[in-house]
Amino acid sequence: MPSFTVPDGTTLAYRVLGGDGPPLVCLPGGPMRDSAYLGELGGLCAHRQLIMLDLRGTGRSEVPADPSSYRCDRQVEDVEALREHLGLDRMDLLAHSAGANLAALYAGRHPERLGKLVLLTPSVMGVGITITGETRLDTARLRRDEPWYPAAYAALEAVVAGRATADSRQVIAPFLHGRWDDAARAFEAADDVQKNGEAAAGYAGEGAFDPDATRTALAGFEAPVLVLAGEYDVSVPQSAAAEYAGLFPHARLVVQPGAGHAPWLDDAGRFLAATTAFLS
Q1: Where exactly are the structural domains of the chain?
Q2: Which class would CATH give 3-128+196-279?
Q3: Gap between the Cα atoms of 142 and 175, Å rounded
């Protein structure tokens, strides 16, 4: 597995999938989950060479000497070091979920180094977008005909009301997928194994984000941006995704029908159609 060393001396690893097409650097979410969960992004590796970065302390990347370096803003230069290692003057970047916070900070700090940017069901923490509990519940109610809905909806209501329990995330997990099938269950079960809990806890630590400054920087970001949302995703409802797209001068919002937080799992064909059309 190829690797490189970042300025603080930490060695990071990445996977290379596919050989055709220009590189597409991919940042995983979680936060701080092994990039293996992205798989082949529904076959996107047949169209682009995917560079799947394992963030520090995840996957096969080294655990840093300084745990405070897990903070999102401190990982921006890890992404820049990868670009330099790959010998790319400019790179296309795809970021999923919590990884979008890192991508947004990178775009604000190094805008001249990006070609195209794909934000896939992006976390909105780094840009300060507010998602109300009622908005999440409205999205959840789209699934009212599913057999698992009553228990999952009751759990989500409890979470929104501040009464989450230890098993709440497990019970509401079906709301994050277009189909609650074996593949979705396996995706969720792997999270506990693939995520670095200490790193996840530090990712959004105090000082990690300055939403006003980031929004100002993104308003001047001239590269094309695709924000791809899932119709059923309670994590990033359509209205939040639309607000995110509106932060950029040249962004396109695509809402994938019937998809949740991992659209490439729910319908690879629709996912590939949207992403390849944008990236071509």
Answers
A1: 3-128+196-279
A2: alpha beta
A3: 10
Rounded Cα distance, 159 and 169, in Å: 9
For 46-95, how does the pLDDT look when each residue is reduced to its tens digit (9 = 90+)? 999 999 999 999 999 999 999 999 999 999 999 999 999 999 999 999 99
State the CB neighbour count (10 A cutoff) for residue 150.
10
Residue range 121-148, pLDDT digits in tens: 999 999 999 999 999 999 999 999 999 9
Pairwise CA distance, residues 36 & 54, whole Å = 8
Tell which residue, 263, 262, 265, has the closest CA to residue 274: 263
Q: Where are the alpha helices (DSSP H) in the chain?
A: 76-86, 99-109, 133-140, 149-160, 168-172, 182-194, 197-203, 211-219, 238-245, 263-266, 268-279
This model's pTM is above 0.85: yes
Q: How far apart are CA 241 and CA 140, in angstroms?
A: 16
Distance (Å, whole) CA 146 – CA 153:
11
Alpha carbon distance 16, 164 (integer Å): 39
Collapsed DSSP state (helix, strand, coil) of residue 182: helix
Give the β-pairing of 91-96 and 114-120.
Answer: parallel
Q: At what angle do helices 133-140 and 238-245 cross, to 10 degrees?
A: 120
Distance CA 110, CA 67 (A): 24
